[in-house]
Amino acid sequence: MDVNLSKKPLKWAELGFQYIKTDFRYSAVFQDGDWLPGSLISEENMLIHEGAPSLHYAQQCFEGMKAQTTQDGRVVLFRPALNSERMNRTASRLLMPEVPQALFIAAVEEAVRANYGWIPPYGSGAALYIRPMLIGVGENLGLKPAQSFEFRVFVSPVGPYYKSAGLAAISLAVSDFDRAAPQGTGSYKAGANYAGGLLATLKAQELGASEALYLDSASHRFIDEAGSANIVIALTSGELVTPSSQAILPSITRRSVMEIASQQFEMPTQERAIDLRAEFDSFAEMSACGTAAVLSPVGRVYFDSKWHIVNGDGYTVGPVMQKLYDSLVQLQRGEVEDRFGWLHEVEM
Ligand SMILES: Cc1ncc(COP(=O)(O)O)c(C=O)c1O
User: Fold this and answer.
1) Mutation choice for ligand 1 from 248, 253, 257, 294, CB with most ligand atoms inside 8 A
2) What is the pTM of this model?
3) What is the DSSP code (8-state) at residue 263?
């Protein structure tokens, strides 16, 4: 396909995190034990059987990634092989076929390339969000895996996930609901984990928070993660810590931030259980991190019926999160050398 190199007339800097219909999406079907050749299509609606296991039993999973335009005009993905591995880990857990990595990467590249006009330009603060998804389709009634599956990749230009644009502090409210059981599906990117979180998010927002924060469901002491992001904490000791938990999604952003902290800034880092109440006074700075959230400093946390300020006036962005954020986004935008080899260029 010839790529149309003109950009759409969008107000890139004003974009929020909403679906915008783009021109093409990629679709491939798994049938009779094999993947059929996939292709780009323009129809955004899916026609699936009313008995499809994805609709009734949530036999579906997804991923979230971004394509960005670099300073020198390249279009890059960030560590896409890790998204492919994570999708396959989830697929296996839900008895769905793995999407071969070559198919996953080719589908993402094709969807990005075909929608070139929708990729936000360098410096706009926006990015092209990429949503790969795998769903169980076909006729079914009883609780059993689907016979057929559709792998689809659609894209949408997006701005910041949280309403405050740029690097501004957000707030989290500890949820009374559990997100995931210790041996449940919390560490998989299964849609089923998110439906139960909708009410938790609503309740957190009613308290004025940006999002819900979950504690571990066994003891309700240790930090698990936020509704759509992992947590990293800079301690007053100078260490950067992040929760170790079997119930959280292994975030690619978190892994990258921890690597930047230890390798670039030589900070001591540790993944360990973090007791919210017992350790809160040793928190110097806290952030939510994820593809959509990037690295969003957390200024205030609501628990035990009141707001607790992490640092400054509760709206301040601290120096540790500022430098980690700067390093991450400079790397993703190609403003500094890709010293870790994390960028994957999409040839146009
Ligand atoms: C529950 C949850 N945790 C963490 C993350 C962050 O993961 P990643 O950095 O791979 O986007 C996400 C998705 O963005 C998520 O949905």
Assistant:
1) 253
2) 0.97
3) I
